[in-house]
């Protein structure tokens, strides 16, 4: 599936261009072309490689998934690999969609799978018509800004889920199994998000380099704003990972304290129960002793049982062991 747009002097002039037209349009002054491929074949990108003079290594990277977020520099173009991140409903797992882009002076070629919506990208561009006359720099900014905003939204959502987890941590009615499962799911999502977000700092640093001449002076503040968002998302992701680790450690500590409390209570009751056991064992001897085979012995043994048990109970209550 291929979508195309022709921008001229900051306005959308045409859509659904024929690929045969693109080479001629790129030679015209003030023309900028966007070409979008969804799940392209080798033949699709081979044709674009010929038209735009793309490097074969960049084309290979575009065809293969699981690239690290990066911005590679070639003689005639740049190659961008980045990820869109969203949280799946229900279990809160992190879903990522790989997006690649070839950046030339007058063309932006995006490559992605069916999970990425190009409509959201065109809506972003259509809302920012005041800077649309900056050509490829504008298109590239819209793409990166969309991806980074998605990262920021995911981080905010994860922060809210971690706050809910903190509340459940001290809830006596919450399930320990559920708490551990949610903690590990959040930690897994944060680890995966970190791999997506952190390399974007290098990408934006490269974009902002003046020797590459990607962002003209008018677009520099826009890319700098995206860079600030990347830094905030990166730092926030790191702090959330620490918070999840702290929640897990606190949960283990709470479990240990609860176990100690249970053991203390059981030990206290065992000590109380040991009193009648000891008394009845002593008075059960088949030898003469004070009160042997008399009412006095019964009263004495019962008094020792009740007095010893009550005394230990009062002592343990004062120490808050039971």
TrEMBL record:
It is found in: Cell membrane. Pfam families: CorA. The chain crosses the membrane at residues 266-284, 296-316. The keyword Amino-acid biosynthesis does not apply. Signal peptide: none annotated. Its main location: membrane. The keyword Transport applies. Keywords: Cell membrane, Membrane, Transmembrane, Transmembrane helix, Transport. GO terms for molecular function: cobalt ion binding; cobalt ion transmembrane transporter activity; magnesium ion binding; magnesium ion transmembrane transporter activity. It is a multi-pass membrane protein. SUPFAM superfamilies: CorA soluble domain-like (SSF143865), Magnesium transport protein CorA, transmembrane region (SSF144083). InterPro entries: CorA_cytoplasmic_dom, CorA_TM1_TM2, MgTranspt_CorA/ZnTranspt_ZntB. GO terms for cellular component: plasma membrane. Belongs to the CorA metal ion transporter (MIT) (TC 1.A.35) family. PANTHER family: CORA FAMILY METAL ION TRANSPORTER (EUROFUNG). This is Magnesium transporter. It comes from Sinomonas atrocyanea.
């Amino acid at each position: 599936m291929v979508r195309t747009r022709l921008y001229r002097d900051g306005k959308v002039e045409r859509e659904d261009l024929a690929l045969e037209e693109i080479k001629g349009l790129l030679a015209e002054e003030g023309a900028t072309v966007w070409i979008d491929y969804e799940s392209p074949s080798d033949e699709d990108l081979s044709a674009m490689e010929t038209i735009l003079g793309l490097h074969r290594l960049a084309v290979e990277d575009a065809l293969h998934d699981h690239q690290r977020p990066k911005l590679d520099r070639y003689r005639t173009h740049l190659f961008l690999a980045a990820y869109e991140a969203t949280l799946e409903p229900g279990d809160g797992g992190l879903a990522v969609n790989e997006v690649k882009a070839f950046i030339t002076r007058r063309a932006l070629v995006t490559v992605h799978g069916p999970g990425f919506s190009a409509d959201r990208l065109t809506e972003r561009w259509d809302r920012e018509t005041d800077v649309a006359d900056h050509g490829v720099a504008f298109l590239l900014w819209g793409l990166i800004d969309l991806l980074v905003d998605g990262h920021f939204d995911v981080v905010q959502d994860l922060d809210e889920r971690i706050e809910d987890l903190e509340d459940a941590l001290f809830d006596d009615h919450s399930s320990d199994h559920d708490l551990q499962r949610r903690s590990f799911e959040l930690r897994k999502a944060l680890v995966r998000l970190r791999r997506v977000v952190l390399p974007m700092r290098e990408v934006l640093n490269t974009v902002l380099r003046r020797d590459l001449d990607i962002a003209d002076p008018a677009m520099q503040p826009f890319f700098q704003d995206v860079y600030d968002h990347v830094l905030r998302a990166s730092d926030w992701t790191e702090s959330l990972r620490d918070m999840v680790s702290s929640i897990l450690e606190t949960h283990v500590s709470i479990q240990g304290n609860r176990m100690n409390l249970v053991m203390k209570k059981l030990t206290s009751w065992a000590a109380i129960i040991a009193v009648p056991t000891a008394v009845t064992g002593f008075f059960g001897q088949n030898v003469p002793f004070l009160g042997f085979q008399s009412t006095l012995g019964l009263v004495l043994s019962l008094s020792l049982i009740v007095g010893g048990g009550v005394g230990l109970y009062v002592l343990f209550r004062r120490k808050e062991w039971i």
